Amino acid sequence: MIEVERVQTGVRMEKRILKVLKGLAEYHDLSLGDLLEGIVLHAFEGKAPFGAVSLRKIEELKQVYHLDLDASASHQLKEGKRRAK
Questions:
Q1: How far apart are CA 16 and CA 73, in angstroms?
Q2: Alpha-carbon distances, residue 18 vs 5, 25, 45, 52 (angstroms)
Q3: Where are the domains of the chain?
Q4: Residues 20-78: pLDDT tens digits?
């Protein structure tokens, strides 16, 4: 194990993406933070973070949470106006 210092962050993210990430973290018995760290470390090296099994699970979770976004939506998302409750 490698000892690190972690900090709390308040990152805003598209709701359905977050649901898929949380579901995937639960599937792999990881915390959301651990999953995100792994994704980022792989991306920093130009490596794919997911194997075939995880990609199938992601597709299932995307269907469950109605996530129809793909990589072409990257940097194209804007926050909508919040509705009054």
A1: 13
A2: 24, 10, 23, 21
A3: 15-71
A4: 999 999 999 999 999 999 999 999 999 999 999 999 999 999 999 999 999 999 999 99
Q: Which residue has the tokens 């649901």?
A: 19
Tokens 């106006």 -> residue? 81
User: What stretches of 1-85 show up as alpha helix (H) in DSSP?
Assistant: 15-27, 32-44, 52-64
Nearest-angstrom CA–CA distance, 68 and 20:
11
Decide if 16 contacts 69 (C-beta within 8 A): yes
66 alpha-carbon distance from chain centroid:
15
pLDDT at position 68 is 97
